[in-house]
Amino acid sequence: MPIPIVKKNMMSKEENGAKNMMNGRPTNKSTAQQKPSKLEVGIADDQAKDFDFAKTEMKYDSTGMFHWTPARSIEDCILDRNQAAMTVLNGHVVVCLFADPDSPLIGLRNLVMPLRASNFHYHELKHVVIVGAVDYIRREWKTLQNLPKISVLNGSPLSRADLRAVNVNLCDMCVILSAKVPSNDDPTLADKEAILASLNIKAMTFDDTIGVLNQSSNAPDAMSPLGSPIVLHRKGSVYGSNVPMITELVNDSNVQFLDQDDDDDPDTELYLTQPFACGTAFAVSVLDSLMSTTYFNQNALTLIRSLITGGATPELEIILAEGAGLRGGYSTPDTLSHRDRCRVGQISLSDGPLATFGEGRKYQDLFVASLRNYGMLCIGLYRLRDAALTTVDATSKRYVITNPPFDFGLLPTDQVYVLLPFERKQSRFSFSETEV
After folding, report:
1. Apex CA 103: angle with CA 101 and CA 104, to 5°?
2. Structural contact between residues 88 and 168, judged by C-beta atoms closer than 8 angstroms
3. Mean pLDDT of 283-302
4. Is the pTM higher than 0.90?
5. What DSSP assignment string belongs to 303-368?
6. CA 234 – CA 418 distance, rounded (Å)
7. Are 41 and 6 in contact (CB under 8 A)?
8. Pairing verdict, β 150-154 and 78-79
């Protein structure tokens, strides 16, 4: 009978000091306090034989769509400047947040959740460091407390000391947001702090002799969330202008202030400007376009979910709509099957099996070969702005080309956005990142 085995395993787990699980919820009750006459794990007897509760952990939410961790107090996740500097953060995401203690909530969970999608392995999750007023973040914490790998630095996004402490030059992305209510007097000032923070980071310089990390090439599944192997010898940006960054704007016209070397006409529409094409600026008005696209093309919602939300199920949408938040669940075969969904990747054409396509081949050749041989769907290119220049004036900036024409020529320096199938093995296809 499976019941005694389960009871024995649960008792041994209690002796080791771990929390018991009852009906999908953690409990601190000891085994002696629980009724010994019935199975307390909340599943039918005929299902119990399929589980080894000594090895089962609640790593995902109840729907299996996102990574989950037991609720943590915000105090346990707060770093001071010295602690952040000693952590030697690398390959992480920095969120620069401007907010007053009484600012309206902007829903930071919607930003972090896609980065915690279960189709990423746990070691691929990028650490998220939020730099801002802890009094405001504490109000948002209830929706973040069950998401792993989050730290908070109580500081200012305009403080260079705080930015250096979180190693902004070593981050994979710096996101600049503002929760402050714009003044009715002058709407153009709504983005003042976000723009100043962006320009402040771009004006910083960093010592190129620090921040070099070594990682064993024998590490299993050494793949980044973008599908590329972790760089073995990683150096951060020497100049702040090379730090990957995206700034949220309330007013579209303020995009003209983000790039000092951009000569675009101030009246140019947002989608034609250099910051938007390079992915360094995002405006709220873009959401209107996405909503309109979804209304006229229902099939677009599936792609938009994969790109933006990390996936969703009707059950998860109901849970979030009712305000329950993420709840932990056992890793059952049913919930684990939800991990088997595509994710966005970025492939370099500089080396690897696809390198031959960067030598004058056409986009149609790459599209067909990627889909037929590797099950990857190409959705666009990420091209150097000055790919044709070899002078010192050439910039490392890239811009996005979505759905290029079939006869579009490819370059060795191009990177390709693809939808990757889950559980791609590194031995089958070698990904690489191009350092620029």
Report:
1. 135
2. no
3. 84
4. no
5. HHIIIIIS---HHHHHHHHTT----EE---HHHHGGG-S-EEEEEESSSSTTGGGGTT-BHHHHHH
6. 24
7. yes
8. parallel
